[in-house]
Design a protein that fits this description.
The chain folds into two domains: 4-226, Spore Coat Polysaccharide Biosynthesis Protein SpsA, Chain A, CATH 3.90.550.10; 232-404, Hexapeptide repeat proteins (UDP N-Acetylglucosamine Acyltransferase, domain 1), CATH 2.160.10. Helices cover 23% and strands 29% of the residues. The chain contains ten helices and 34 strands. α6 packs across α7 (201-210). Bound molecules: uridine-diphosphate-N-acetylglucosamine and magnesium ion (MG).
Length: 408
């Protein structure tokens, strides 16, 4: 197997996003865009990844501080994708292997496609292999120009296309695998003679073809993964596509999602078999749901929620940073925050944990088999013993519990 590294281009100024934040930190279904691209590279066995970042590099590094396989490369001035690759020259000029180049603003990338790209590259013994997509609406993307025999001649950026070229539906999603030496020889020669005055990586291809190297373009990228994120509208679109993938995966794993269009589930969530997610449920952050649970409609689950098996959460129930043991029921209008709830507890309509006293957040612990009547306010820090019975409407503090014993 060839020695292989990746370069992720993530330094663009992202003017179309209209943001103060590095574009690749914008989130898609709960993770920054860059995380998806890094993962796709890792899944095809790439052990060293050069990420080219521009403004806000310190924020990006901080967010990915545990990524030991990443080498951060700064591109001081954003002069184009070709120039961004050139910024890695110091690190890679003597590298004798293959370099995968992808964009940080393409979170929909799938490892299976990269695998095809690598296989085609190996089989064809080419200097460059790129994966392309065919889009019904190709506007904005670089177009793949092929000759009468179907061989790729080059890529023309949207802003540089002739009216004939604008009709080409085969586009460049920016998935390339290069022989490293060929890549750096070519990017050094790229000139910024285009409408935007940038050094385009796409222009390196024409140069490589002109020197007689074998270049292969395989149509391997599905339309739903080709979409790059350059604007807020495209970010929303990427979220939608990713959300469909997440839900499809969950459904394949045996989860019922009653109304996928009106349900939102974070990529970090794990949900067990035969759990039913009712409409208008929003699951955000690291959330673990066991088997046979029923969640929603209109439930809001936040980071740190763990539901063991057979838990029932109903309408307008919010749970955060809490573990609910088997068969807990909170069917209507509850807030359970920073709590541990034992097996078989019933939390009545409108009961809440008051976990924040204006200064700090405290925990509530509810033992097994407790009954919490409707409209109770449980003031944290609080510990209710197994079998406690809290009458409807009670305001419960630890002081009172200590005074009156376990029966409410
Ligand atoms: C680029 C491709 C285009 C392709 C599209 C796919 C070029 C010239 N064009 O266009 O053919 O269809 O991606 O999504 O390559 N970047 C840097 N430094 C720079 C400029 C850009 O790191 O100086 C990064 C950006 O952060 C981004 C990526 O490179 O992640 C692509 O740049 P972007 O400006 O989004 O290019 P597109 O117009 O989308
Ligand atoms: Mg882009």
């Amino acid at each position: 197997m060839a020695d292989r590294v990746a370069i992720i281009l993530a330094a663009g100024v992202s003017s179309r996003m209209n943001t103060q934040m590095p574009k690749v930190l914008h989130e898609v279904c709960g993770r920054p865009m860059l995380a998806y691209v890094l993962d796709a590279c890792r899944k095809v066995g790439i052990g060293k990844i050069y990420v080219v970042v521009g403004f806000g590099i310190e924020h990006v590094r901080e967010r990915f501080s545990d990524a030991e396989d990443v080498v951060w490369v700064q591109q001081q001035e954003q002069k184009g994708t070709g120039h961004a690759v050139l910024c890695c020259k110091e690190h890679l000029k003597d590298f004798e292997g293959e370099t995968l180049v992808v964009c940080g603003d393409g979170p929909l990338i799938r490892a299976v496609t990269l695998k095809i790209l690598i296989e085609k590259h190996e089989a064809g013994q080419t200097a460059v292999t790129l994966a392309t997509a065919v889009l019904d609406e190709p506007a904005g993307y670089g177009r793949i120009v092929r000759d009468a025999y179907g061989n790729i001649q080059g890529i023309v950026e949207d802003s540089d296309c002739t009216s004939e070229q604008l009709k080409i539906k085969e586009v460049n999603p920016s998935y390339y695998l290069f022989d490293n030496k060929v890549l750096f020889e070519a990017v050094e020669k790229v000139k910024p003679d285009n409408v935007k005055g940038e050094y385009y990586l796409t222009d390196a291809l024409a140069l490589i073809i002109a020197t007689g190297h074998k270049v292969l373009a395989v149509t391997a990228v599905r339309p739903d993964e080709a979409k790059g994120v350059n604007s807020r509208a495209e970010l929303t679109e990427a979220n939608k596509i990713m959300q469909r993938r997440i839900q499809q995966q969950l459904m394949d794993n045996g989860v019922t999602i009653v109304d996928p269009d009106n349900t939102w589930i974070d990529i970090r969530a794990e949900i067990g078999q035969d759990t039913v997610i009712e409409p208008f449920t929003y699951i955000h952050g690291e959330v673990t749901i066991g088997r046979g649970c029923r969640v929603g409609p209109f439930a809001y689950l936040r980071s740190g929620t763990v539901l063991e098996d057979d838990v029932v959460l109903g309408v307008f129930t919010e749970v955060k940073n809490s573990t609910l043991a088997k068969s807990v029921r909170a069917r209507h209008h509850s807030y359970i925050g920073d709590a541990t709830v034992g097996q078989n507890v019933n939390i009545g309509a409108g009961s809440i944990t008051a976990n924040f006293n204006g200064e700090k957040v405290s925990r509530t612990s509810i033992g097994s088999d407790c009954y919490v009547g409707s409209g109770a306010i449980l003031i944290a820090p609080l510990e209710l013993k197994d079998g406690s019975h809290i009458k409807p409407g009670m305001v419960v503090s630890q002081d009172e519990i200590d005074k009156f014993g376990k029966k409410g």
